[in-house]
Design a protein that fits this description.
- By secondary structure, the chain is an alpha+beta fold.
- It has five helices and twelve strands.
- The strands form two sheets. It has a seven-stranded mixed beta sheet with strand order 1-2-3-7-6-5-4. The chain has a five-stranded antiparallel beta sheet with strand order 11-10-9-8-12.
- Helix 2 crosses helix 5.
- The longest helix is centred in the last third of the chain and has 21 residues.
- The protein is globular, with a radius of gyration of 18 Å.
- The structure holds biotin.
């Protein structure tokens, strides 16, 4: 795949952990993709696990080692990845997927992909970013009730390699852009967010419901909402939850 080297593993604990192993560092250059058919300890966000049937889904970590990306731009990596995934899902389904802030990909009320990014910082720059991506492709049975896959929606099988190629093509496009300046990435990300400009339901951490409109993510990655009293408020992770009714 153009510009990216791929390491394929039949089984590993987690592709993100593999990419972080000290003894692997000489083998893993900038733009390396670690892909696994199976993970015994796949990691999700917030210390959750990530489950996947063997060989059915895309389980990858894209490793980038930017030379000059200041930490202030760390969310641009997250924006680029979410956009690339959203574009990939939309392309293969011919259907508009949404980014659920901060970086889950949804088709209506169902999650089809998730992202777990682990950055290393040195002298105020991102020296390495391990971008873990789990995209449900050909799996049709899930233990989680709000999960879905390309196959569940389109009723056909997909070739993992083709999905990976398209994803990398879109990721590289956005990544090149943020290395150049990244001026457009934030508004592009914002315009693809679930609830953008629409009154939708949220829950507070105490499960109190409220309605708000998504304005977008701040440069610090916080979610900016317009409340019904007209106020604009920023929320960090775990300070607000989307209420999708499932
Ligand atoms: C989420 O909770 O939404 C994030 C899921 C990220 C899962 C992927 S699968 C490949 C990579 N390796 C991991 O251990 N996790 C990520």
């Amino acid at each position: 795949i153009s510009g990216y080297s791929t390491i394929f593993l039949s089984s590993v604990d987690s592709t993100n952990n593999y990419a972080a192993r000290p003894e692997m560092q000489s083998k893993i250059q900038d733009k390396t993709v670690i892909m696994a058919a199976n993970q015994s300890k796949g990691k999700g966000q917030h210390r959750n696990s990530w489950e996947s049937e063997v060989g059915k889904n895309l389980l990858i970590s894209i490793v980038i080692k930017p030379k000059d990306l200041p930490i202030e731009k760390q969310f641009f990596i997250s924006f680029s990845t979410a956009l690339a995934l959203k574009e990939t899902v939309s392309f293969f389904l011919s259907k508009n997927a949404k980014i659920k802030w901060p970086n889950d990909i949804y088709i209506n009320t169902h999650k089809i992909a998730g992202i777990l990014i682990e950055n290393s910082i040195s002298s105020n720059k991102i020296s390495r970013s391990i971008i873990g991506i789990g995209l449900n492709v050909n799996q049709i049975n899930f233990s989680i009730k709000n999960a879905t896959s390309l196959k569940l929606i389109k009723k056909e099988d997909f070739v993992l390699k083709s999905v990976l190629e398209y994803l990398l093509y879109r990721f590289d496009y956005h990544y090149k852009n943020i290395l150049e300046n990244g001026s457009k990435i934030q508004s592009l990300y914002n315009s693809n967010l679930m609830g953008k400009g629409e009154w939708i339901s949220f829950l507070t951490p105490k499960h109190e419901p409220f309605k708000a409109k998504v304005i977008g993510a701040s440069t610090q990655g916080k979610l900016r909402l317009e409340l019904q009293n007209g106020a604009i408020q920023e929320f960090a992770h775990k300070e607000v939850f989307f209420d999708l009714g499932n």
